[in-house]
Amino acid sequence: MRAGRGFRVVRVVLFVLFAAYFALPLVSMANFSVQGKGPLEGTITFHYYAELVRNEDLRSAIVSSLLLAVLTVALMVVLLVPTMIWVRLRTPGLNRLVEFLCLLPLTVPPLVIVVGISNVYTWVNYFLGDSPQVLVFAYVVLVLPYSYRSIDSALSAIDVTTLAEAARSLGAGWLTVITRVVMPNIVSGVLGAAFIAIALVLGEYVFASLLHYDTMPVELAAIYKSETSTAIAGAFASIVLISLLLLGLSFFNRNQVPDLGGQKE
Predict the structure, then answer these.
(1) Which conformational region is residue 91 in: left (phi greater than 0), alpha (psi within -120 to 50 degrees), or beta?
(2) Going by C-beta distance under 8 Å and a sequence separation of 6 or more, which residues neighbour residue 181?
């Protein structure tokens, strides 16, 4: 009993220490972003959060980053989910190769990737224009390792082969098998991959900066030199948004767990 009680005390202490380690910087950011400067000194103000909307360049960058996050998630799902399902069902021998290719971007520094694709983006800009949304192709590569792990875990939790064979025996085509049989069973994994992709896109700076696109992180970094409080407010708002998305994912996963308590043998 004493050993168990001591373990619980240590666990609580460690939890409090970890919570303080992560929470204190956020509290400092929130406090700094609402402290008035100049004529407003000594007061609490949300003036700097309003600047996120009033500043035309920053507002445009925020909209571009949000749209870029949506496009990245859509392209990632369209490319990755059908490919992973098809490999598991039809060519399981290629599973290791697909895993290697998806995890490969983790081994290459982002700076090296940018240098390698800079010439490619010259042609991309020529054919598609120079809007920040063309970064979607590079960002899909960036989020690939994290998205792969999330979707792979969801696929490993179900018997994909049995589900597909049952659907095929009833006359379903491969498109129906993927969209109406397998996809509903891996929604949590796909959502996890989507939220991770959104978090990475909203915080990514190296690609956009070196390829000369104005996204939210690039614009916040530029504003930080002259309007520190506005930049801190923007960074804190993005952290809160991403945290809410991850919190929503945790509640969604909890609701997906079936309640077997009422079943009788």
Answers:
(1) beta
(2) 163, 164, 167, 172
112-135: per-residue pLDDT in tens? Answer: 888 888 888 888 888 888 888 899
- For the chain, the C-alpha Rg in angstroms (whole number) is 23
Q: Tokens representing 36?
A: 């008035």
Cα atoms in the Cβ-side hemisphere of radius 13 Å centred on 19: 6
Query: How much is the pTM?
Result: 0.79
Token pair in block for residue 193: 């991959």
Q: What is the pLDDT of residues 176-234, one digit of tens each?
A: 888 888 888 888 888 888 888 888 888 888 888 888 888 888 888 888 888 888 888 88
CA nearest neighbour of 66 among 132, 114, 9: 132
Find out whether 106 and 145 touch, Cβ atoms under 8 Å.
yes
Amino acid type, 163: L
Cα–Cα distance measured from residue 220 to residue 223, given in angstroms and rounded to the nearest whole number: 5
- Amino acid sitting at position 184: P
Burial category of 138 from C-beta neighbours within 10 Å (exposed 0-12, middle 13-18, buried 19 and up): buried
Burial code (b: 16+ CB inside 10 Å, e: under 16) for 73-108 equals bebbbeebbbebbebbbeeeeeeeebbeebeebeee
